[in-house]
Amino acid sequence: MGTALILNTSTLLTLIIITSPLFTPLLSNTLTASPTHIVRTIKMAFMLSLLPMALFTYSGADTVTLCWEWKLITNFKIPLDFKIDQYSIMFSPIALYVTWSILQFATWYMASEPHITKFFHYLLMFLTAMMILTTANNMFLLFIGWEGVGIMSFLLIGWWFGRAEANTAALQAVLYNRIGDIGLILSMAWLATTTSTWQILPPTEPGTTPTLPLLGLILAATGKSAQFSLHPWLPAAMEGPTPVSALLHSSTMVVAGIFLLIRSHPMLTNNQTALTLCLCLGALSSLFAATCALTQNDIKKIIAFSTSSQLGLMMVTIGLNLPQLAFLHISTHAFFKAMLFLCSGSIIHSMNGEQDIRKMGNLQTALPTTTSCMTIGNLALMGTPFLAGFYSKDPIIESLNTSYLNAWALSLTLLATMFTATYTTRMTLMVQTGPTRVSPVNPTNENDPAIINSITRLAAGSMLAGLLISSFTLPIKTPPMTMPLTTKTTAIIVSILGLILALELLNISNTLTKPKQTPWANFSMTLGYFNPLTHRISSSLSLGNSQKLALSLVDLSWYKKIGPEGIASLQQTITKSSTSMHTGLIKAYLGTFALSTIILILTTTHL
Amino acid sequence: MSYLHLSFYAAFTLSSLGLAFHRTHLISALLCLESMILSIYVALTMWPIQMQASSSTILPILILTFSACEAGTGLALLVASTRTHGSDHLHNFNLLQC
Q: What is its membrane topology (chain B) (predicted)?
């Protein structure tokens, strides 16, 4: 009883503290929410959210809190309830820790921004929506959070709205997310009509859930988490400021789709079709993103594709029916990915806005803290033993190897893991080592506690988070314990192969005379030719077909040709040819008519 | 025959003779057509009542629909011919015949 009370109250209090800087300025003119004030608020919310996490680790208790109920009709009530279970309890402190560091970094990064308070308010609104999404017990609240994060993503990507590419990228994000929302609304409608509730429950008969709502959920996850067919918005979202990329497009928003699938695990668990679809889609996205990252030259885009690749890996884990492991990967990934983005932000400001890694080099001497933390983050990303990424990535690869599965998905995922090592090594070596390719005069300065504290805090998280989380959470499904040595060390071997490959390639490219254009390099550089193909073809097809439908078919054909004008033209051809035959003797014609009438009268009346 | 039958019989005959003999204006022909339709309508209404064939009760409604369309078409022709020929005199209509 006491446990549940503390869990509920501390979680609700955390949520209220997060939203408080948004509405305290409305209460009084003297209460302004400055950026440092907001950073302190989030720090306090993080400390408070450690309490339910400790309580959950000790007792394993989870609760559902019902605040209010919208009594729509007798049979279908929509409660406002918060599900405080292992996923939301573990996600809150991690998200708040990462947000705290990002907001502290943003006080330095956006210091010259005139609307910095509005920026922080937008980030807080985003965080509120994300918290609603993670603590939602029913699809209605989840949908509110889902739409909220989508809109805040649009507003934040287009923060520098004077730039045309930023507006295009924001529009792209919203459109691709909307296509995913169709799937979410489809499954919500199916749930409402079939199960008469919007909570996600296991199927009643011991069979499987029909595939249709699961396809809707997978479509929603494809849109939100940038899986293969709906992925172009994620690299384009790098037009937003670096704190936005760090918060939304690496740690929190893009995992919302995967989080939805984790929450829907009771529905997904028996339906092998949906699971196989998740598996193959995730493997394909992982490899595609890793291939595209190999030839990118913009530091933020490399990290964006890396995020996309790890999201594919999370989708693969869902396809293996291991939601807890996917959540573990979400948690550990948040730390090192946010840190990589913050390091790239520090580098970009030090290079006076330069984002091209071909114009950076030898930053180890100029920015020691940033580059060491970047190395830690890259090693964690590659799955180096006993850093954070290892505790989630290695079990995924092991489970993939030891399960009864799809050889194609396995080979794609292993290839993607190798490419991960390759592009991270390439990025590290080109940015940090080698001859200096930067301009001689640079405002290279990382001597600000805002940068140092936030990045090193996340570095500590990247090193310890995997160990801590996996030690204190009890796995629901038994992890595979026995396997041959090569299977056990597959991930390590593949990553080392990728690293050696990157070293070899960089050695060769130091002595190149002219750049080589091969079909594979072209495929990787143009992101698989996906963007120009789909963006042009889909819009021209739909607009052309809709014009044909609306104008030619409906307006011209059905309203005119088949109706009045068609009949009129038909009659006119006949009339024109028979006009010459008319003699126009109306008297004679009507006279015969009168004659027939008189004959009729005479013969039918009984005279 | 009964007085009822006489009334619409006579109405129909008078209207058809009026159609045949009033050849000055188009509109008089249209009016006679209307009264022919009206007498047929009344006859059709009387027939199911007297024969107790109630499923034919819908027939006068159908005739009414078609007569309304026909009246509209006739008036449209009247207006169109007045626009081109200046009046609705029937003997103008073959003036442009070649």
A: Multi-pass membrane protein
Q: Which domains does chain B have, with CATH numbers?
A: 1-90 (1.10.287.3510)
CA dihedral A270, A273, A278, A279 (to 10 degrees): 100
Chain B contact set for A587 (CB, 8 A): 23
Token digits of residue A416: 């993607």
Give Cα separations from A440 to A169, A350, A359 (angstroms). 33, 12, 12
- Chain CA centroid to CA A401, Å: 27
In chain A, which residue's Cα lies nearest the Cα of B26? A586
Q: Which of A576, A597, A604 has the most B C-beta neighbours within 10 Å, making it the best mutation to test the interface with B? A: A597
Answer whether A318's CB lies under 8 Å from A271's CB. Answer: no
Interface of A with B (CB under 8 A): 579-580, 582, 584, 586-587, 590-591, 593-594, 597-598, 600-601
Q: Model confidence at A381, in pLDDT bands (50, 70, 90)?
A: very high
Whether A204 shows a pLDDT value over 80: the answer reads no
Cβ partners under 8 Å of residue A183, min gap 6: A215, A216, A217, A218, A219, A220, A222, A223
Q: Alpha-carbon distance A373 to A572, whole Å?
A: 85
Beta carbons within 8 Å of A294's beta carbon, 6+ residues apart: A419, A422, A423, A426, A524
Structure tokens belonging to residue A76: 């279908």
Contact call for residues B90 and B26 (beta carbons, < 8 A): yes
Alpha carbons A257 and A87: distance in angstroms, whole number: 14
DSSP sequence for A142-173: HHHHHHHHHHHHHHHHTSSTTSHHHHHHHHHH
* Residues A463-492, mean pLDDT to the nearest whole number: 89
Is the Cβ–Cβ distance between A349 and A427 less than 8 Å? no
Estimate the crossing angle of helix A272-293 against helix A211-224, to 10 degrees.
Answer: 20
Q: Per-residue pLDDT for A61 more than 90?
A: no
- Nearest partner of A437 among A510, A370, A377, judged by Cα: A510
Specify burial of residue A89 (Cβ count, 10 A radius: 0-12, 13-18, 19+).
buried
